[in-house]
Write a structure and sequence with these properties.
This protein has 18 helices and no strands. With 422 residues, it is an all-alpha fold. α3 packs parallel to α6.
């Protein structure tokens, strides 16, 4: 390994670690609400339906922001976008923690969702510029563990903080987010050129792909061809809705569901949801490695397998009654293992199909469909649970999960990436 390759390897690992930690911190100031919800109900008299509206509006605004932020993320400094977004999320959490008005709480949670939307697209661009396509499934799966690390830490930390009052679930994560701002400013750089390195394709001696920034007309043509007129991108995006519906159901409502439906304490419920997230980490790493090793980089095929198994284990969690607690916990955890594999690889397949020049926009488009699921998992679950109970809510979500299986099956024969026809 020569000096350039050593330096490249160092910076790839630094960018990977920097963005894993940084994006995990985004989750600390996004998934903290789930542990605070029982306290908000008891202290302020907020209903599940009202909390569901919080979740729905937050998710919709997040999804729209994630999509719209893809356009500037393809052109502007990823580093500046990331640190600015996390700083503003921290401010929103501080204000939320000090508030008692339903309107102010709702407004700043929605605003938090808007700033959260600027977190992922810049990272999608960073990874596409730093990691070769043939390694992207494996290394981006490693990066995707940031979701589960952040989500698990959020429910564990807040599971204990809530004993001091629900407001502490916002104060402490907000302080940690400020530390995350400093961390990303130090560790992240936009592209290999910023540190005096050649671009990926130049390093690999490839001549069939020009690493130049497209002008406005070329960029628009690429967007139409690789994203908005691309059938595979559309199917991956729509399939993202049921994937996120199952995931958000557990993350947003899991602590409350396990407390009310299964009779567990919030601290124990937090650990179980954390186990769901940790299983997701293992699932993402396994799925990413399997994609590159056994499926020739065809991430969408592994998505199908993962979604079949995730939906099946969620079905068992729902329907099996009169079993020991550890049995249904195992089913929930196994569902997380496969569900996060489908989530991670859906994003990877989107990035590779769109190519790095429009990866941020494509991933933003992919993301907005995932966050449309909050119409179901936010207000929908809250209202259905208030009126009919938890069993009806879970049944609807599992039906949606199996619809994702059908969608992924439609693109079984799609190519591994879109670089050969750019």
């Amino acid at each position: 390994m020569n000096d350039v390759e050593k330096k490249y390897n160092y910076w790839q690992n630094r960018i990977l670690l920097g963005t894993i930690v940084g994006y995990a911190v985004f989750y600390l100031v996004r998934k903290n609400l789930s542990m605070a919800m029982p306290g908000l109900q008891a202290d302020l008299g907020i209903t599940k339906t009202q909390l569901g509206i919080f979740l729905t509006l937050h998710g919709i605004i997040y999804g729209v922001s994630k999509f719209l932020s893809g356009f500037p993320a393809d052109k502007l400094s990823s580093r500046h976008l990331l640190v600015s977004a996390l700083l503003l999320c921290s401010v929103c959490n501080f204000i939320f923690g000090f508030s008692s008005s339903l309107i102010i709480l709702g407004a700043f949670w929605v605003l938090n969702g808007f700033f959260q939307g600027f977190g992922f697209p810049p990272i999608a661009r960073l990874l596409a510029y730093w990691i070769p396509p043939k390694q992207l499934a494996t290394k981006m799966s490693i990066w995707q563990t940031s979701h589960s690390i952040g989500g698990a830490l959020a429910v564990i930390i807040c599971g204990y903080l809530v004993s001091f009052g629900w407001r502490w679930c916002f104060y402490v994560p907000a302080v940690l987010a400020l530390l995350g701002v400093v961390w990303m400013w130090i560790t992240v750089r936009n592209s290999p050129k910023d540190v005096g390195l050649p671009e990926i394709d130049e390093l690999e001696h490839k001549n069939n792909y020009k690493e130049t920034q497209p002008n406005n007309d070329e960029y628009k043509q690429l967007l139409m061809k690789k994203v908005f007129k691309n059938k595979v991108i559309w199917i991956l995006a729509i399939a993202n809705l049921p994937v996120y519906a199952l995931r958000f159901a557990v993350l947003d409502w899991g602590p409350t569901l396990l407390k009310e439906w299964k009779g567990l304490s919030l601290a124990h419920a937090g650990w179980i949801v954390a186990a769901f997230e940790v299983a997701g980490i293992l699932g993402m790493l396994t799925a990413g490695r399997a994609t590159d090793k056994f499926f020739d980089g065809k991430a969408h095929r592994v998505c199908l397998i993962c979604m079949v198994l995730a939906s099946t284990f969620m079905l068992l969690f729902w329907k099996l009654a009169n079993v020991p607690v550890f049995v249904y916990i195992i089913f929930l955890v196994l569902s997380g293992f496969f569900l996060y594999g489908a989530q991670a690889l859906g994003t990877i397949a989107t990035s590779k199909t769109a190519t790095r020049k429009v990866a941020a926009t494509a991933c933003g488009f992919h993301g907005i469909w995932g966050y449309l699921s909050v119409l179901i998992t936010g207000w929908g679950v809250g209202f259905l649970t208030d009126t009919h109970g938890w069993s009806y809510s879970l049944g609807a979500l599992i039906f949606l999960g199996f619809s994702g299986v059908i969608l992924f099956a439609l693109i079984w024969n799609a190519k591994a990436d879109g670089y050969d026809d750019i």
